[in-house]
């Protein structure tokens, strides 16, 4: 199901206008403890994972680090807990389409990529929630 | 700073209309591993912490569990990583006021409490983001 609501295109904010541009990233061969430290230092729940060419190859979240606590065993590296199929957005995408992606996949952030699949920002449910602050102003 | 935007009161959705009512909770004497399991089973990032009378006394998130991974040491129980001062909302609060609370405190969920401080729901940035889906519809 893919609904594209009809709308006044020029009135819809674009992802570029609300995304965060300071993004902390990690690589898949780093230890989980390093991911945990970066998540805390960056005060974020989401770290995009980049390959050697700075291209997006996965995402790791505080939710995934929690897996390592719940079921210890031999998970040691980011690659043991990361999600490889990343739902993403672009700077030009309309924010309501991005909001639908979050809803459909039950996730709270989308890496924002350029045409070379390099991460140029992060869009979170919190960024979208902020847009609501002005919605019912008189 | 507490801004209450002027608005058509009857048009503003209330927290009750968008909150989640299935809430997984925990107590502060449970081990962190149990919190991790509940977070994963509930597919959530937030667990409200209840006392013996089912009243809200704190909150623990995947972010807090990540702290235990980043800096191990002797953190064992939920009480060692929980946040005690919980920003909260009520079912009758307007969603834009709740959105402002999330923004001001840089958090992504608010427990919804009744007058006896018992948790009756959870409001997340994702619930608010969903409201945006319909915003620019023609
Ligand atoms: C399904 S969510 C459930 C928890 C919660 N709703 C949240 O937003 O984090 C948790 C999983 O989603 C994954 N995830 C988060 N953002 C993602 C994205 N943009 N694309 C694909 N998976 C993502 C994480 O790696 C994690 O394993």
From TrEMBL, chains A, B:
Origin: domain of life: Archaea
GO biological process: one example: methionine biosynthetic process
Keywords of this entry: Amino-acid biosynthesis, CBS domain, Methionine biosynthesis
Domain CBS: 19-75, 82-138
Protein's recorded name: CBS domain-containing protein
Species per Swiss-Prot/TrEMBL record: Methanofollis liminatans DSM 4140
Lineage: Archaea, Methanobacteriati, Methanobacteriota, Stenosarchaea group, Methanomicrobia
Portion of the parent chain present: 372 to 509 of 509
